[in-house]
């Protein structure tokens, strides 16, 4: 499913958190959103999920305006994994993932064997099947993060919006999550802090002060000049001799030897 | 041992039957036990006469006590207990605060003020007038509390603080109305009623309490998935496809209505909405599919039991039922607080 955003914006307390963002993500594409802290990545993801009141501009799914779809219809198409969603309830890991079936169920269409199979599959996909019965409060940050992603998978969306999905994850789970996401037959938009992970996306968008500062394939967008300008870091491109992949190494601009 | 292992392939059916049987026994006990103990055969014969016109020989005085006093009183106690427990479940879910219940959020206080205003000022009058006044007061109180909480920056802790302020305000208003307008005798009656009292309950009260509790139960059952979805907050519920504003309006509306009806019939009974849902959560877990029916059942049985105790505690005198529920509820509340602290 294709998602397009036209002149999207959102203001809080008179300040524009996101302004005039226009972009289109193609069916099946993995799209990375990068940008410094407070550049509006999370807000843009919420706008794309249709969660913000008084939003400016328009979001369309396959050409249909999001505002024309009900909440339930939207949730069947778009799943969002936010940062720091917590609960004080004594839920189990499995309970948390079962919540993903909410948009597909009603009082007249209760949770059934098909839903159970989808939840099992989602738990297995993030490697949490063996901990399905564990209490939420006993889980680590990384385990909770993986369950949020499993919950989004159980929602069976066509578009997956992920806000820093590799946060809290150890390196093994970071890599397996990114591999899982890139293999899913859905459109993925994810905010990322690790620019090397962003290098693996099909395209990336760079947010700066609420605006889309650049858009394109990672190798074209992540130039040393742009990284210096937006992230205030120096960057050197390196090649991994194993597979010729491009890596970025960062250093503080202040530490650069001044060239004459 | 799992539920399925104990009850076979249809656990919900068996558990439902078990629950219905428990409620039936509790109602029977509520009718049998009292200052004048009535033997079970008399009670059963009265039921048979009234329901199937069986024509069995029963002492008319005893039959009158069973049918006109004890049975309506027990049914209203069951409806109130279920309604208050459901109100607690709803508010704790939507507000995401373990302390939320109609009493703490000022809804009960608002309902009392509304009912007292109608009773003393004579606006409307009659049973429905009293309930309507209570509903108006409860809605007004909740709206004020919600507005205050929002103005103070939102958050569920703020809402409970605002609820305390709202309770104080409306309790003061109630006292003001009583002091200003009521005669000494009226004042005594109102104070007694405010503490929770089922002594005056008759059949017309049943026709108000039962439909309110049943409507509440059905609406809660209809919204179990939505209430589950609130576990991770309103944003998350919205992302899961829950029409948050509509669900909040419907569920808070029915909660306010149930509280208002119960308060107008039996006064303001505290702690049931707070303690019963937590106790049930400890047994059946936090998912609303189990929590809603079991909390309703436990609330109903708890209030029937509290009513029996209130009749039996002091011979020849009825202790206000609110006193009984608070005597049990306060220690229960303390346990919840300690448990919450221990939680990792």
| End-to-end Cα distance of chain B | 26 Å
How many DSSP H or I helices of chain A? 9
Overall mean confidence score, pLDDT of chain A: 90
The assigned CATH architecture of the largest domain in chain A is: 3-Layer(aba) Sandwich
Q: Say how many strands of chain A there are.
A: 12
The figure for the number of domains of chain B is 1
CATH class of the largest domain in chain A: Alpha Beta
Secondary-structure element sequence of chain A? EEEHEEHEHHHEHEHEEHHEE
- Report the structural category of chain A: alpha/beta
Domain ABC transporter (chain A): 3-234
GO molecular function (chain A): ATP binding
Protein name (chain A): Iron complex transport system ATP-binding protein
Pfam family, one (chain A): ABC_tran
Q: How would you characterize the overall build of this protein?
A:
- Chain B: Pfam families: FecCD.
- Chain B: This is Iron complex transport system permease protein.
- Chain B: Belongs to the binding-protein-dependent transport system permease family. FecCD subfamily.
- Chain B: It is found in: Cell membrane.
- Chain B: It is a multi-pass membrane protein.
- Chain A: InterPro entries: AAA+_ATPase, ABC_transporter-like_ATP-bd, P-loop_NTPase.
- The complex is a heterodimer of chains A (260) and B (344).
- Chain A is an alpha/beta fold.
- Chain A folds into two domains: 3-217, P-loop containing nucleotide triphosphate hydrolases (Rossmann fold, 3-Layer(aba) Sandwich), CATH 3.40.50; 223-260, no CATH class.
- Helix content of chain A is 30%, strand content 28%.
- Chain A has helices at 41-48, 71-77, 93-98, 113-125, 141-154, 171-183, 195-198, 218-221, 224-231; strands spanning 3-12, 15-25, 30-34, 56-61, 64-65, 78-81, 159-163, 187-191, 203-208, 211-216, 233-239, 246-252.
- In chain A, the strands form three sheets. Chain A has a six-stranded mixed β-sheet, sandwiched between helices. In chain A, strands 2-1-4-5 form a four-stranded antiparallel β-sheet. A two-stranded antiparallel sheet of chain A has the order 11-12.
- In chain A, strand 7, helix 6 (171-183) and strand 8 (187-191) form a beta-alpha-beta unit.
- In chain A, helix 4 packs across helix 5.
- Chain A is globular.
- The mean pLDDT of chain A is 90.
- Chain B is mostly helical and 344 residues long.
- Chain B has one domain (30-342): ABC transporter involved in vitamin B12 uptake, BtuC, CATH 1.10.3470.10.
- Chain B contains 15 helices and no strands.
- The longest helix of chain B has 36 residues, at 60-95.
- Chain B is globular, with a radius of gyration of 20 Å.
- Chains A and B meet through helix 2 of A and helix 10 and helix 11 of B.
